[in-house]
Amino acid sequence: MRVRHIRIQSFRGIEDSEIHFKTHTLLVGGNNAGKSTICDALDLVLGPERLYRRPVVDEHDFYLGRYLDEDGAPVEIRIDAILTQLTPEERRRFGDQHLRLWDDYASEFIDEEEGGADRSGEEGVDWALPVCFIGRYDREEDDFVGDTFFCHPEPLIDADDTEALAELGAGLSRFSRSHKRLAGYVYLRALRTGSRALSLQRGSLLDTILQLEGDGAAEMWSDTLGKLGGLDPAVGDIPQLKEVRGELRERLGRFVNMAPGDDSAAFFASDLTRQHLREVVRLFVATQPSDHLVPYAKQGTGSVNLLVFALLTIIADLKGTQSVIFAMEEPEIALPPHTQRRVTRYVLSEMGQSIVTSHSAPVIEQFEPDSIVMLHRDGAKLIGTPIDPAKVKRKTYLTNKRQFAEAVLARGVLVVEGSTEAVVFPAVSAVLERVRADYTHLDFSGVSMFTAPGDGSIAKFGPIFKALGKKAWGVCDKPNGQLPQDVLDDRAEFDEFWESEELGIEDVLVKGIPVETQRRFLDDVSTRGDYPTTNHPFDPAIDDTNVPTLVHKVLKARKGEAYAYAAVLVEHCETEAELPTELVDILVAIDVELRGEPEVGFDPEVAVPATDSEEADPEVATETSAPEEPAET
């Protein structure tokens, strides 16, 4: 089973939006773009334990906090999900009456179209299960309610039957917890591996593993409680406690008819109830270099995250990994790059479907380009745009995948011809930030540097970044000869493209930076161990007219980001007047274009902060401490 499509209405910062998923989907976007909202929405529909928290939703889960309309009628949160690729067993369990024919290419149901049922054997046509979550405010109970339902078939209710119409779900069949367990949705939330995640409370990861591994839980609890009650020696036989126990028994006997004997007052290690054991039992872990066991919460953040992930993989294995829909937020948190890659590769290879959010290039690199969905907002509407493989060739993407991974996270991309330019522009930006009060550095503006793989190849990236929906700017040296029309057409796809009057970045620097600054540069770098002393010796008495020539030769001899001499030259500029005007104009134009625009995906009107309960008691979203669901009839 796979999630193919979701529609979210009036939930958090989303008024009405639709997102399509593939077998593996990476959601990328700016802060508050809606990545976590999508995962939470899926959890409301598919999470086996999610609905048994109280309240299911609250005021802040409604779009703009509006849970009543202007007439005082309740506004409904509605989340519709379409599940495809059902196994024969899943089809049997859910019942054919709840299934509909889905055209994957057109992304629509066709069973009610004329002749639609006859297309069931066509490629891209499959039986799908539409399910939904509906939540709203119940005025009579003065509380928020919510539940999940099969969306098909829609019940036939008389228009005059106001009571039936007002019922939550209006007669739809309930999509129960046992159905959701069959769907196999597992959700690992970012930064929320807290107090209940590794406890034995109902719905926690360890409790889920116990349930999946078979019978015997009832005997386990009763045996443990019996052993705690019959400890030998008893807790109350500790000398200090025994003395206190005797005093208490004597004093209480003056006012209360105590049972005879010394055991009429006792100390035990717990309340001797299942629920209390669930609350107090904790997992202890010893990690190198120490062999001392400590509660898991005392481990480092990265170790706790990996421990939770390890437990989730056990759950996935018990359910059968290929039947699991695994959602994971920001696996990079507190993990080094190599571990990020390993975790991501495991998820992609072992899970039936994965839905991942990330801000990390090592994570993004593991996904095929057509599996990446870039999220951005158009007002209150959340738009998910997958990378179009027809416009972004797989070979081009994989050849430059680290740079593309950073670019898809950026607000804009500055494409340059070589690695020298790639270090010069950030250096000029740093000087501008220092000397100009109204200028914002490229990094803080969210602009990513992209180095074209060869001279003359820069133009082709204009259409590529336009297809990605990114602002893109291009800079190149003066070309040799007339450019063909297709190159000029590609350049026109950039938001702006600058062609230098110089043949190389070294010419731009030596012609645009004062001789005094160049001399300070030579005084500095001539003492470095990598300075090309043999071919370009520096004499402090050199005439000013010869300084630019020597600097040009030194920059040529130490090109690129490995030596970064060009960036060092720029760093010796102390005022804006010392910087090359050509480079300043480019960076200021980019800054002006971005100024005043919010970060991609951030809309202060609809951004919803984490609730206090989430921050105070973070957790994995597969947990709940609510009572178990009543047995189904």
UniProtKB/TrEMBL annotation:
The chain positions of domain OLD protein-like TOPRIM read 409-477
Q: Which GO terms describe its molecular function?
A: endonuclease activity
What Pfam families does UniProt report for this protein, alphabetically? AAA_15, OLD-like_TOPRIM
Give the Endonuclease GajA/Old nuclease/RecF-like AAA domain ranges: 1-49, 281-361
User: What domain of life?
Assistant: Bacteria
List UniProt keywords, sorted A-Z.
Endonuclease, Hydrolase, Nuclease
Q: Signal sequence: where?
A: none
Q: Where is the composition biased (Low complexity)?
A: 621-633
**Disordered: annotated span:** 600-633
Kindly give the PANTHER family that the UniProt entry links to this protein. ATP/GTP PHOSPHATASE, ATP_GTP PHOSPHATASE
Protein's UniProt name:
Putative ATP-dependent endonuclease of OLD family
Q: Which species is this UniProt entry from?
A: Microbacterium thalassium
Q: What is the lineage of its organism?
A: Bacteria, Bacillati, Actinomycetota, Actinomycetes, Micrococcales
